[in-house]
Specification:
single chain; about 675 residues; alpha+beta; 7-stranded antiparallel beta sheet; 6-stranded mixed beta sheet; 18 helices; 13 strands; about 60% helix
Length: about 675
């Protein structure tokens, strides 16, 4: 098969038998993934050119394909294989002559009919391109699923470690109609595709392409060639030529056919100018006739009808020897690939186990190395602490020697002081005499002070008495004045004046005594406050001292810790035995792993059971896939841009609401007699 796009040129070459060396002309063939150029003899037929291309790319299922070109009026046409290439009047005369190698007819069931891998690959590329070009309508959720299979086919298994973000965002994976229909960036679409892409792990390229085609063949427009026609009432309609028969569509709806005529009901096909006539097997039914706008279109319709009808009948007959041989070879090849994949899976599993063991050993080795490093650091810290303690011990010893020296000097000083005390005993006695004399003088002074105090007290009492006499005299004078004023004016104001005097009166002695009496408590309180403040100051001093002391202790703590470390048992920092035998004690026997028998008779039997199991799980997988599609559709529904929804989206939504599918619709539109369907067509 051809796996990537390349350019192949065959110069002056013809793979068919030559009689004489004649003129040649250049031909360019474009397949879906290759460009081929040939120099073709002027007398070569279309069949010879077609066979040359098929042999070049290794294709044996040739009946699905053809060589397409655009004629001089830009209409699509297919090369006639039974005529010479240069004798066909519609062939363009430019150089080189360009043809497209494309699928002309489609199978009914890709999984049953497509045998060769190259055939599957060419169909995959062509259908994918038609979906991306929007020639085939594909709903958004199915587009994302198909994109995930396309990515699996192109890149293989998803590997999270090697996956680069933005890889899929730059790929052409979704139809532009789908991208415009939602408020989602390319990165958001990439995330959605990546979720399904990761689920396809273990799927080969041909399996991914086949899964793609299985989903795509269920799309309503897949495998349908549309042509504009009209009936006797000149109603604009669409004719769909398919692998099952002829479909008739309304002009506004290319998804759901209104009528279908299976190939099994069609007996003869012909056209006269623009009128196309189809005779049915039911002779009682009138001919089915429609009209096209161009004569060239009728030729193309007739060509597609004949080819599809022949393949329709061929499928319902036993396979030819060539097809049986191809299917047998494909079955053997598939079985061989399954065995190889099983072997590869086992080898991969063994490699992964070895890698896991290797990673575990490396992790353990790193852990041991880390423990060794920590133990060395702890040992180094212990040695440094020991050296520091030794220095501290030396300094302490020197300080002890110095203190001992000072103690000896202090003892000598005490002895000297004792001697001096004896010498000064006489001086002490003399001082005692002077002290007694001083005490006598002080006693006399105290007695004099007492006497003076008594005199002062006597004087104070006399002053008090004088003040009381003065006060009494003032009171009498006031009383006399009040009586005099009363006698003179005869006014009764003495009561109020007395009241006022009593109200405003002031007792100097009483007030002074009161004030004096209050001074003592104040003084006491003040003294108490001072005592309290002094006590507080003492407490504060004690607290500050305590803090300083704690700081000193903290400053000394490293020594204490170091001292602790000096005697600390460092057994948990012990260095493990890292000898070769211990480190690789759990080493795998690689030779036994490699020489293990990967495929036995039991494995063959298990493989057969796996194949049967895959078949039984297919329906369950399909159901799971449908559930995923429904979930995904509901998730992105909120991001939909309503104004970008096209008519086909609305028609598909109505079809889903009614529970219709492509095949249920086909069963519905071919019901009834041929005559009734022809009559219904005439009334459209």
């Amino acid at each position: 098969g051809i796996n990537s796009r390349y350019f192949l040129k065959i110069s002056n070459m013809s793979l068919f038998r030559r009689k004489k060396s004649g003129k040649v002309f250049p031909v360019k063939i474009s397949t879906m993934d290759a460009e081929l150029e040939f120099s073709l003899d002027y007398k070569a037929t279309g069949q010879e050119l077609f066979d040359l291309v098929c042999r070049t790319i290794g294709l044996r299922e040739t009946w699905y394909f053809g060589l397409q070109f655009q004629d001089s009026k830009n209409y699509i046409a297919w090369l006639k294989l039974d005529k010479k290439v240069m004798d066909q009047p519609d062939i363009p005369r430019n150089s080189p002559v360009h043809f497209l190698f494309l699928a002309k007819f489609y199978p009914e069931d890709v999984s049953e009919e497509l045998v060769q891998e190259i055939t599957q690959h060419l169909f995959f590329l062509q259908v994918k391109q038609s979906i991306l070009n929007m020639d085939i309508y594909c709903p958004p959720e199915a587009s994302v699923l198909l994109a995930s299979y396309a990515v699996q086919a192109k890149y293989g298994d998803y590997e999270e470690s090697s996956y680069q973000p933005g890889l899929l965002a730059n790929e052409d994976l979704l139809p532009q109609r789908v991208i415009d229909q939602y408020k989602m960036t390319r990165e958001m679409w990439e995330e959605r595709i990546k979720v399904w892409y990761a689920d396809h792990r273990g799927m080969s390229r041909d399996e991914a392409e086949m899964e793609y085609l299985k989903i795509a063949q269920d799309l309503d427009m897949c495998g349908v060639n549309y042509f504009q026609i009209f009936n006797k009432k000149e109603s604009d309609l669409w004719l769909g030529v398919t692998n099952l028969g002829l479909n008739i569509y309304e002009n506004e709806n290319k998804l759901t056919p209104k009528i279908m005529f299976p190939w099994s009901e069609i007996r003869n096909i012909s056209f006269d100018d623009k009128k196309f006539i189809i005779k049915t097997v039911d002779k009682s039914s009138p001919n089915f006739a429609f009209y096209s706008k161009k004569l060239r279109m009728n030729k193309l319709i007739l060509d597609l009808c004949i080819g599809n009808h022949d393949l329709f009948m061929k499928r319902r007959k036993p396979d030819t020897m060539e097809v049986q041989q191809m299917k047998a070879q494909a079955k053997e090849e598939k079985l061989r690939r399954q065995i190889e994949r099983s072997k590869l899976a086992r080898e991969k599993q063994l490699r992964e186990e070895v890698e896991r063991e290797k990673s575990a050993l490396e992790a353990r080795l790193i852990q041991y190395q880390e423990e060794v490093r920590l133990a060395k650091e702890a040992l180094q810290r212990s040695e440094e602490s020991a050296e520091l303690l030794a220095e501290k011990s030396m300094v302490a010893h020197q300080e002890a020697m110095l203190l001992q020296q000072k103690a000896s000097e202090a003892e000598a000083e005490v002895q000297r002081i004792k001697l001096s005390v004896i010498k000064t005993e006489e001086e002490r006695q003399q001082m005692e005499r002077k002290s007694r004399e001083t005490e006598l003088i002080v006693t006399r002074m105290v007695e004099e002070a007492e006497r003076r105090k008594t005199e002062a007290e006597t004087l104070r009492q006399e002053v008090v008495q004088a003040r009381e006499a003065e006060k009494e005299a003032k009171n009498k004078l006031l009383e006399f004045l009040n009586i005099s004023m009363t006698d003179m004016k005869g006014s009764p104001t003495s009561g109020s004046g007395q009241a006022a005097g009593q109200h405003n009166g002031f007792s100097p002695l009483g007030g002074n005594g009161s004030v004096m009496s209050n001074l003592s408590p104040v003084r006491d309180v003040r003294n108490f406050s001072m005592d309290q403040s002094q006590g507080h100051g003492y407490i504060q001093h004690q607290t500050d001292y305590s803090l300083v002391h704690s700081t000193d202790e903290l400053n000394q703590s490293p020594l204490d810790v170091s001292a602790g470390l000096n005697g600390f048992n460092l057994s948990h920092y012990s260095v493990p035995n890292l000898s070769t035998n211990n480190v690789f004690g759990h080493r795998l026997d690689f030779s036994s792993s490699v020489s293990h028998d990967l495929m036995t008779e039991n494995d063959m039997e298990a493989l057969s059971l796996e194949i049967e199991k895959e078949r039984s799980q297919y329906l369950e997988k399909s159901k799971h896939l449908q559930d995923q599609l429904i979930t995904f559709k509901s998730e992105i529904e909120e991001l939909k841009v309503e104004e970008n929804i096209c008519d086909l989206d609305k028609l598909h939504s109505e079809q889903q609401t009614q529970g219709e599918t492509k095949y249920s619709t086909i069963q519905k539109v071919k019901r009834g007699s041929t005559q009734s369907r022809v009559a219904f067509f005439e009334e459209l």
